[in-house]
Design brief:
Layout: E1 8-12, H1 17-28, E2 32-36, H2 42-50, E3 53-55, H3 64-67, E4 73-77, H4 86-93, E5 97-100, H5 101-109, E6 113-118, H6 123-136, E7 141-149, E8 154-158, E9 163-168, E10 182-185, H7 193-196, H8 199-211, E11 218-222, E12 230-233, E13 240-247, E14 252-258, E15 261-268, H9 273-289, H10 293-302, E16 311-315, E17 320-324, H11 329-342, E18 348-352, H12 357-362, H13 364-371, E19 376-379, H14 395-401, E20 407-409, H15 415-422, E21 426-430, H16 439-449
Parallel strand pairs: 1-2, 1-4, 2-3, 4-5, 6-9, 6-10, 7-9, 10-11, 11-12, 12-13, 17-21, 18-19, 18-21, 19-20
Antiparallel strand pairs: 7-8, 13-14, 14-15, 16-17
């Protein structure tokens, strides 16, 4: 595969956060971009405005239009697409060059110094902060981010090709295609057992990822990750330590200590201990590539965060509504901990949409344990994403395991009224599915009521 000879690309699942970043990369290279997604969205609308042609009905696609010049046409698909999807099958049948997204990222990364951020959570925030620092420092880089950075309203940044900053996704073992010079493992909690079967195989994959780092490369990992590397965190034995930590609803502030050096008063507009750890990791890598302390601190002061990462929709004296992408028990734990640190005297209501039948099944007790900490729980049906239903696995099963006198399984349309009737000041919506589409609706109804 020679990307320099490509004139046309077609992305299956173009509306996804990872695929849309690739679409922007090819549009940036003046390559014609086509794509399919089953639903139009803000992302597909933006890509259309940038020049991409979007299809939402694959039956309207003329495969011969793309097979006339097979050598200069590339078909890329997300691993969320089933192997037997009719669109994918027809492209293969017509002799097109078909690749997974991870294969294309691998190819792009071969021409740059690769910085890979891995971990079962924390990847997107760490990658976003790092990309922002590189941008402020005016470094030559391209970044593919798994979320929309508020500073740029984009999941893609490009200022050259000396470095590539990318989330090293463990799903489908995609991260094993990378050979980074610089790498970070933010966390290693049980997830994606539909791919790995058990936690040992997941850990083995991360160990293999470590071995993919180039000779002489640099690896850091969170102090809670059992991996031989330089450690960052708050413990004395960690090489890079966050100290003098403060955070509230508006910002986090801390110092960094390492090698008899101290960087004081690092401040970022993100609350929570987990975001301090994400920032710490991004700062360490930035220092390692040679960016000055002054530029790093200036960049952090101006970083606005990522959409759907502890994002305030309403924040006043009477009502708080926060939205977050959290879809794993550990992420829910982090959100709860941050909420309690900011609002220690308030009761907390959570709206949660489980993501994937397999994840709900595999981590059922862990989800129930974390959700039981909240004072009120509103549960939605499981968002299936790429999966077919699993017999006996549903949100009622999860609800039954949650220890709370104030819990309910409901439809999305019922959420605003339940929140209003519950009457708590602090409310949070969580999930990686289409609950994100409900946030503005909930916001409008709550603002009208209050």
């Amino acid at each position: 595969m020679n990307l320099s000879s490509i004139n046309n690309v077609f992305l299956i699942g173009i509306g996804g956060i990872g695929m849309s970043g690739l679409a922007k990369y090819f549009l940036d290279k003046q390559i014609k971009v086509h794509g399919y997604d089953k639903k139009l969205s803000k992302i597909t609308d933006e890509l259309s405005k940038m020049g991409a042609k979007i299809y939402c009905n694959y039956e309207n696609i003329e495969y011969t239009d793309f097979s006339k010049n097979i050598d200069d046409t590339l078909i890329i698909y997300t691993p969320a697409i089933r192997d037997d999807h009719p669109l994918l099958s027809n492209f293969i049948k017509n002799g097109l060059n078909v690749y997974k997204r991870a294969e294309i990222i691998e190819k792009i990364s071969q021409n740059s110094k690769c910085i890979a951020i891995a971990g079962t959570h924390g990847k997107t925030t760490t990658t976003s902060i790092l990309a922002h620092i590189f941008n402020v420092a005016n470094y030559s880089f391209v970044a593919f981010v798994g979320g929309i950075m508020k500073n740029y309203n984009s999941n893609y940044l490009s200022k050259g090709d000396e470095f590539i900053i990318v989330e090293a996704d463990e799903f489908d073992r995609s991260f094993l295609r990378l050979e980074p010079e610089f790498a970070c493992i933010t966390s290693l909690d049980v997830d994606h057992l539909d791919v790995y079967e058990n936690s040992n195989k997941l850990i083995d994959a991360f160990k293999l990822f470590k071995r993919k780092i180039k000779i002489g490369g640099f690896l850091i990992s969170n102090e809670n990750v059992e991996m031989d590397s330089f450690k960052y965190g708050i413990k004395n034995e960690s090489k890079y330590k966050a100290t003098n930590i403060e955070f509230n609803s508006e910002y986090s502030q801390f110092n960094i200590e390492f090698d008899n050096t101290q960087i004081k008063n690092i401040k970022i507009q993100l609350p929570g201990m987990h975001n301090i750890m994400n920032t710490l990791a991004a700062v360490i890598i930035s220092l390692k590539v040679g960016i000055s302390e002054k530029l790093i601190i200036n960049a952090l002061n101006s970083f606005k965060g990522i959409q759907r990462r502890f994002s305030y929709s309403i924040n006043n004296d009477n009502l708080v509504l926060i939205d977050d992408y959290a879809h794993h028990p550990e992420e829910i734990k982090q959100v709860y901990s941050t909420l309690k640190s900011i609002y220690p005297k308030e009761k907390l209501l959570v709206v949660f949409q489980p993501h994937l039948y397999s994840r709900t099944r595999d981590l059922l007790d862990e989800f129930a344990n974390e959700l039981s900490k909240f004072d009120a729980v509103i549960l939605l049906e499981i968002y299936p994403a790429r999966e077919q239903p699993i017999d006996g696995i549903n949100s009622q099963l999860l609800l039954n395991k949650i220890h709370s006198d104030n819990k309910i399984l409901c439809k999305k349309s019922e959420i605003p009224d339940i929140i209003k009737n519950t009457g708590f000041k602090v409310n949070v919506t969580l999930g990686a599915g289409d609950i994100a589409n409900e946030v503005n609706i909930i916001k409008k109804e709550l603002e009208h009521a209050y």
